[in-house]
Write a structure and sequence with these properties.
The protein is α+β, with helices and mostly antiparallel strands. The chain has 2 domains: 238 residues, 3-Layer(aba) Sandwich (Aminopeptidase); 95 residues, Peptidase M42, domain 2 (Elongation Factor Tu (Ef-tu), domain 3). It is built from 9 helices and 19 strands. The strands form 3 sheets. Strands 1, 2, 3, 12, 13, 14, 15, 16, 17 and 18 form a 10-stranded mixed β-sheet that branches. Helix 1 packs across helix 6. It is globular and about 70 Å long. The structure holds zinc ion. The site of zinc ion has 6 residues, from helix 6.
């Protein structure tokens, strides 16, 4: 596998709008990719994707899961001036959306706009511009259309309950970084797709491994949906939290030992580390202070599964994210090593 192909896959995924609840196009893309590698692919009622790498031996199966749903928002109210008040989907901070371009997904099509504080002009509002709160009740989406009130917005097809996708603005730098929103978790999904292709072209794995693409992770209910019941281990591939006090780095894979949901299975975590060492994949262990994964979500449903978590380091997560192609490659390599675990 090459870092370049994972980055290309990531950019393709980032070009598909997929806020939680409207993630079907991104899941469709993944389903088509997995099927094109020759893998049997199923869709769940909720829209998740499950591809199967059939093992050569019987015994309990396991699953790798990554999510393609992203943070987003929804129209909560059409204000008297025609601007839109939004409610966030998942943990999208309003402060990180000031000035962001966004798209309203209406029943009939798409209308672009900009997310602004309620009082956005310094010439009109003076010092109040700086002082006003940057929180969702005070933020507004300004549509790129001639609207002056609810009637004209509704005429364009805008309605309360419409999904809003914030533009990711992906950029790949010459220094090997990718900066974009939604590297959580499209970076991992891209790595999983590349590992799936390598696995499909390689020797059959010993144990049956399900590759699961989740579409409700950002609201905490993704992975339980659709991972077949014979999986006794669920490993989430999701971004690692980079920042002060964290061991995680943008250019490395992290194996997570504990997050807000508690410790991951010790046996699973240690086996992942062994696999990384065996394949010469540089990695760190870390714990995350404000974080829960789809693997934990699965365990919380009462399923009797061992859970694990690894993924690429992502700086400034849920705001202005960035990772490095070294971490993308390491994540794909560790996913492949897990699939091919002897
Ligand atoms: Zn995530």
């Amino acid at each position: 596998m090459q870092a370049n192909e994972i980055t290309e896959e990531l950019l393709a995924l980032l070009s598909i709008t997929s806020p939680t609840g409207r993630a079907t196009p991104a899941a469709d893309y993944c389903a088509e990719r997995l099927a094109s590698f020759g893998l049997p692919v199923k869709r769940t009622a909720r829209g998740a994707v499950v591809a199967t790498l059939q093992g050569t031996q019987g015994g309990p199966a396991r699953a790798l899961t990554a999510h393609v749903d992203t943070l987003g928002a929804m129209v909560a109210e059409i204000m008297s001036d025609g601007r839109l008040r939004l409610t966030p989907i998942g943990g999208l901070p309003a402060q990180a959306c000031e000035g962001a371009y966004a798209t309203v997904l209406t029943q009939d099509g798409e209308i672009t706009g900009t997310i602004l504080p309620g009082c956005a002009s310094t010439h009109v509002f003076g010092a109040h511009y700086a002082e006003q709160k940057r929180e969702w009740p005070e933020m507004r989406l300004r549509l790129d259309a001639k609207v002056d009130g609810p009637a004209s917005a509704e005429q364009l097809g805008v309605a309360v309950g419409d999904f809003v996708a914030v533009d990711p603005r992906p950029v790949r730098t010459e220094t090997g970084f990718v900066k974009s929103r939604y590297l959580d978790d499209k970076a991992s999904a891209a790595a999983l797709l590349c590992a799936a292709r390598a696995a499909a072209n390689g020797p059959r794995p010993r144990r049956t491994t399900y590759l699961h693409i989740s579409v409700y992770e950002e609201v905490g209910s993704g992975a339980p949906a659709g991972i077949p019941g014979d999986a006794e281990e669920i490993v989430a591939i999701d971004m690692a939290a980079v920042g002060a006090g964290q061991a995680s780095r943008e250019d490395l894979v992290t194996i997570c030992a504990k997050d807000s949901g508690g410790p991951y299975d010790h046996n699973t975590t240690q086996r992942l580390a062994q696999l990384a060492r065996g394949a010469n994949i540089p990695f760190v262990f870390d714990t995350y202070p404000y974080y829960a994964s789809d693997a934990t979500a699965a365990a919380r449903t009462g399923r009797d599964v061992r859970i694990g978590l690894f993924g690429p380091g992502v700086d400034a997560s849920h705001t202005h994210e960035r990772t490095h192609e070294d971490a993308l490659l390491g994540t794909a390599q560790l996913a492949l090593a897990y699939i091919q675990e002897p």
